[in-house]
């Protein structure tokens, strides 16, 4: 059998992006996926009867133009949907909701008339403050070799810039929020929204040191502009488009192919062994899995430096959330003080239902004690409002993430806690949409334990290493001087474990493919 140029372990969106770039350049590619579908945590499949459900990512943020040009999603059958209302943020009772409109004039009017010029000015000043630290994070820059926090601080052009980075790298989200939204009453909505943005991909509360980094990372803007969108047919339509692209260019995507180990000969990765014993050989092997999954499950310990393995095992992987999918027989409506929002159907598309920062911190601390949170922050979505193809006629689907699930509780208790927290999530949604529970005809509840089993993510962590300052930037690299190489020659990482980290940006996969072509495939 002829040697393949590249074998890619895992058909998640980054693995497929790497495969599509390599295949487009004329290289032979085999992508191996243990499941019977592509996309991983950006996949779409039927979970609830007759529906296309997303177990993982559900919205597309702006992509780098270089990536969209290279991957040509639309040319491979993907279709994007604009969102008149990209998100709505619902605070505690008594505070005003905050909506994010696609139309800039409508957005300006909403901020001015519903939240006032002071709040709008605070938001503008916050975005201005975040611009520099977000820029040095290189979240949307393709092929950039990440630097350490110390290097970035040393290179800061001024004392003020150094202070900015010190705050973002070491401070809490509330240290930053209090600068621009200091009034707990007047600024309640913004304080809640920004606190929630800081904790979704961390194991921290908004008052925890280091949470400012995640806030700025989340607020970072793509220099190419653009708005949040949906993908028709669900987020899995993007990996499916990449699968078609790879196959059209002569590559292979093999489903239900479990990799048992990475084959190493003479210190170099030369292929993989499948569960059934078949060995596939390649010039290079790319892993779309996280670091522990790659280095501790697919390789023998003696093949790796002891300190490197120690560092890999020290990476914090947690999934402190429950994920719910719903099939609904009607479209839920806002009630009570929120009922006025029903006049715009797109205000029901999705967003967040968030308590005050102090309540979020209390919930995080309860989570650490193995207890359910008293105040569950929720990200929710009803995507059939903009894409009715996702459910049978006459039905809707909805999804929700509820945060601060006690993921470190004993295994014997987590199933019961998961189901109890699912009911808390539904109860909280009903505070805003009183008829939501009555609309449910079917539901599925997942915790990080399910993500670990379904997707192979360590501890179910969809970030492949939480967005904590000491786990980002150069800390994402496995080998100094490279964004994707590993201590094993010929073995590269192409997933979210690499810089710039999680989010559906396709940049880790795209960057890995380009590095491999420069260093290995010529």
Question: What does it look like?
Answer:
It is a single chain. This protein has 522 residues and is α/β, with parallel strands linked by helices. The protein is built from 16 helices and 18 strands. Strand 1, helix 1 (13-24) and strand 2 form a beta-alpha-beta unit.
Topology:
Elements: E1 4-9, H1 13-24, E2 29-32, E3 44-45, E4 53-54, H2 65-71, E5 80-82, E6 85-90, E7 98-101, H3 104-137, H4 149-155, H5 159-170, H6 173-180, H7 188-199, H8 211-219, E8 229-231, H9 237-248, E9 252-254, E10 259-265, E11 268-274, E12 279-287, H10 291-295, H11 306-314, E13 321-328, E14 350-353, H12 357-368, E15 378-381, E16 396-403, H13 411-432, H14 436-439, E17 440-447, H15 448-455, E18 491-493, H16 507-521
Parallel strand pairs: 1-2, 1-12, 2-9, 6-14, 12-18
Antiparallel strand pairs: 3-4, 5-8, 6-7, 10-11, 11-12, 13-16, 13-17, 14-15, 15-16
Helix pairs in contact: 1-9, 1-16, 3-5, 3-6, 4-5, 5-8, 6-7, 6-8, 7-8
In brief, what are we looking at here?
It is built from 16 helices and 18 strands. The strands form four sheets. Strands 1, 2, 9, 10, 11, 12 and 18 form a seven-stranded mixed β-sheet that branches. Strands 7-6-14-15-16-13-17 form a seven-stranded mixed β-sheet, sandwiched between helices. A two-stranded antiparallel sheet has the order 3-4. A hairpin with a 2-residue loop joins strand 10 and strand 11.
């Amino acid at each position: 059998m002829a040697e393949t140029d590249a074998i890619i372990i895992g058909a998640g969106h980054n693995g497929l992006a790497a495969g599509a770039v390599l295949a487009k350049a004329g290289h032979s590619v085999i992508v191996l996926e243990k499941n019977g579908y592509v996309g991983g945590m950006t996949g779409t499949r039927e979970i609830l009867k007759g529906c296309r459900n997303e177990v993982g990512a559900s919205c597309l943020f702006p992509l780098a133009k270089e990536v969209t040009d290279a991957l040509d999603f639309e040319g491979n059958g993907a279709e994007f949907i604009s969102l008149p209302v990209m998100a709505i943020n619902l605070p505690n009772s008594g505070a005003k909701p905050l909506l994010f409109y696609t139309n800039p004039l409508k957005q300006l009017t909403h901020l001015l008339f519903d939240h006032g010029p002071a709040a709008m000015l605070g938001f503008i000043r916050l975005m201005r403050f975040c611009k520099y630290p977000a820029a040095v994070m290189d979240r949307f820059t393709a092929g950039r070799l990440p630097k350490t926090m110390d290097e970035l601080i040393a290179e800061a052009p001024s004392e003020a810039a150094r202070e900015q980075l010190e705050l973002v790298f070491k401070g809490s989200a509330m240290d930053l929020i209090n600068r621009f939204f200091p009034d707990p009453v007047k600024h309640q909505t913004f304080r809640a929204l920004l606190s929630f943005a800081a904790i979704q991909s961390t194991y921290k509360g908004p008052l925890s040191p280091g949470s400012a980094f995640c806030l700025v990372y989340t607020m970072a803007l793509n220099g190419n502009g653009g708005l949040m969108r949906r993908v028709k047919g669900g987020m899995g339509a993007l990996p499916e488009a990449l699968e078609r692209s790879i196959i059209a260019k002569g590559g292979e995507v093999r489903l239900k192919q479990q990799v048992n180990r990475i084959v190493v000969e003479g210190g170099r990765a030369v292929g993989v062994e499948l569960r059934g014993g078949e060995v596939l050989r390649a010039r290079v092997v790319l892993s779309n899995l996280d670091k522990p999954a790659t280095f501790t499950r697919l390789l023998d310990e003696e093949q790796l430096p002891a300190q490197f393995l120690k560092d890999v095992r020290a990476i914090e992987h947690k999934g402190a959330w429950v994920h719910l999918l719903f099939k609904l027989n009607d479209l839920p409506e806002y009630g009570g003080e929120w009922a006025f929002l029903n006049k715009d159907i797109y205000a029901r598309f999705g967003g967040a239902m968030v308590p005050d920062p102090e309540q979020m911190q209390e919930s995080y601390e309860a989570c650490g004690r193995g207890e359910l949170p008293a105040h569950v922050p929720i990200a929710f979505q009803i995507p059939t409002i903009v894409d009715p193809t996702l459910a049978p006629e006459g039905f809707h689907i909805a999804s929700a993430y509820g945060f601060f699930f006690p993921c470190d509780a004993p295994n014997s208790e987590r199933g019961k806690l998961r189901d109890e927290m699912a009911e808390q999530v539904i109860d909280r949604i009903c505070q805003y949409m009183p008829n939501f529970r009555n609309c449910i005809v079917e539901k599925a509840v997942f915790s990080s334990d399910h993500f670990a089993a379904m997707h192979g993510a360590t501890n179910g962590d969809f970030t492949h290493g939480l967005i904590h300052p000491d786990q980002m930037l150069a800390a994402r690299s496995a080998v100094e001087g490279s964004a994707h190489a590993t201590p094993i020659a010929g073995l590269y990482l192409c997933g979210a474990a690499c810089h710039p980290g999680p989010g559906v940006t396709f940049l880790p996969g795209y960057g890995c493919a380009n590095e491999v072509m420069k260093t290995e495939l010529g």
